[in-house]
Amino acid sequence: MTAAALKLLPYRDLTQLARSQGVAGWHSMRKDELVLALLKQAKHRRRISPGAESRGIVNGTARQRQAATVHDRLSQMQAKMESGKILCSNNPNAARVVEHDRLVVMVRDPYWLQAYWELTRQSIDRAQSAMGQSWHKCQPMLRLFKVGADGASALVRQIPVHGGVSHWYIDVQEPPCQFRLEIGYFHDDGQFYCLARSNSVSTPPASTSDSVDENWSDVAEHADRIFAMSGGYQPRGTSLELQELLEERLGRPMGTPMETRYGSGAARVLTAKTQMPFSVDAELLVFGVSDPNAHVTLLGEPVPLRADGSFSVRMSLAERRQVIPVIASSPDGVEQRTIILAVERNTKVLEPRVRQLTQ
Questions:
Q1: pTM for the complete prediction?
Q2: Residue whose C-alpha is closest to residue 336's, from 292, 300, 296
Q3: How many whole angstroms separate alpha carbon 54 and alpha carbon 183?
Q4: What is the distance, to the nearest Å, from the Cα of residue 176 to the centroid of all Cα atoms in its chain?
Q5: Closest C-alpha among 38, 39, 3, 7 to residue 136
Q6: For residues 172-190, b (16+ Cβ closer than 10 Å) or e, as one string?
Q7: What is the DSSP letter of 343?
């Protein structure tokens, strides 16, 4: 038991240790006083009083057992503190061995991202060596950066995470916007040791009709949507880390359907004499809010309002330009407000593209 080891323990653990060692007045002691009292108590227990030689062997054995118990408790407390910092798996029976560090960020919706990381134990050890004496006060941290149009990154905020986890949900603002992440260890003095950097993703524009997936953590079920929203089907593509991660988890390739889903079997079904059925239609969703007691009409038809004054109407989207007046009248009929929507549908059917298949 040393002063340095005791100072690393939190105040609560020191009070528990002082109580078990029978330190008098531990209730009112500050942390420094508890450390001094525990050291004094340990020194007193090691001292052999005069005339106790006949009991030396018995008392020595008891003191050794007691010292070993105290040492074990200190070791357990320190191990508990350190385990909260570890960002990689320490399970030797894990089915999959992490071979390299990676941090992947995926888009959930306009306001949420999901981060997933895999870090090797060697990287954690290097971080501990680099932080030196500051390591015991370091906190695992995710850093969120906003990426500008010129590619420059600006730090938005730092997000403390728990040790032992491998994914985290992050709320973001101002959609559409581009973000990236870093993961590492942060010290109160501003020092940050980066373990891995993520790919960049762009959140989609906000819309009240966006649905929120209840089972977002089930990547297998929503993999194609995650891949698409994270830029997988765009001409610029997405990061190799995200593509590799999804392919490893799902056991199938990720990419456009032309590249991954259609094989030679399709050629036996879709011959030159048959055409694949394909049609697309669209609806227009008009939504808004007014006074709960107001009278609202759309194209002259009354619109029912919910208890909070909100409303939504689905209507067909004809193949032409439409002008849609929406009128709200106050309950007493004194005030009337009008909003006009102008929308146009122009559908184009392109020539089919036939892929040349090889046997």
A1: 0.45
A2: 296
A3: 61
A4: 18
A5: 7
A6: beebebbbbbbbbbbbeee
A7: E
Token readout for 49 is: 């009083």
DSSP string computed for 19-73 = HHTT-TTGGG--HHHHHHHHHHHHHHHHSPPTT-GGGHHHHHHHHHHHHHHHHHH
Measure the CA–CA gap between 326 and 79, rounded to whole angstroms. Answer: 65
Query: In degrees to the nearest 10, what's the CA dihedral of 257, 262, 263, 267?
Result: -150
Measured between alpha carbons, how far is 287 from 314 in angstroms, rounded to an integer? 9
DSSP 92: T
The two three-digit tokens of residue 91, written as one number:
């399970």
Pull the structure tokens for residue 179: 């973000």
**CB 212 within 8 Å of CB 109:** yes
DSSP 136: G
> Per-residue pLDDT tens for 36-89?
888 887 777 766 544 444 444 445 555 555 555 555 555 555 555 455 566 765
